[in-house]
Amino acid sequence: MKDESVVVFSENKQDLKPLINLLEQNYDVVICSYNSSDSWSSVDLHSNKNALYIFDEFPEDKDVVWVISKLVEDGVLSTTPVLFTCFDAMYDFERMGYSAFAYDVLPHPFDYDIAQRRVENISEIKSARSFR
What we know:
It is globular, with a radius of gyration of 13 Å. Helix 3 (62-73) links the parallel strand 3 (51-55) and strand 4 (82-84). 45% of the residues lie in helices and 16% in strands. The chain is built from 5 helices and 5 strands. By secondary structure, the chain is α/β, with parallel strands linked by helices. The protein has one domain (5-130): Response regulator (Rossmann fold), CATH 3.40.50. It has a 5-stranded parallel beta sheet with strand order 2-1-3-4-5, sandwiched between helices.
């Protein structure tokens, strides 16, 4: 089993297949839907592990707000880095009034070296923060 998990929220899993394939080489990857009933058990399972969260574009429904609100309520986003698959997702996240202690954007199309480096960078930020 791999030491770190990456929890990916997406409704377009097929579009993220190249990214998922890249991540699976070094991380335990969990794919979640923004549908709250399907996702929360996976999030809860990984919230105490060494995990990163990746948010793909947000569908326009209430489940997105519920999922992110739950992450905020449980304190996950104050301690866990977040990556976005596009600037639109990052802007939507901020526009909804949410913030994370660290985040970055993975450029699309996904390039292995760039994606890997950004995931490693955000993971290092989390590790450094936990040593304080």
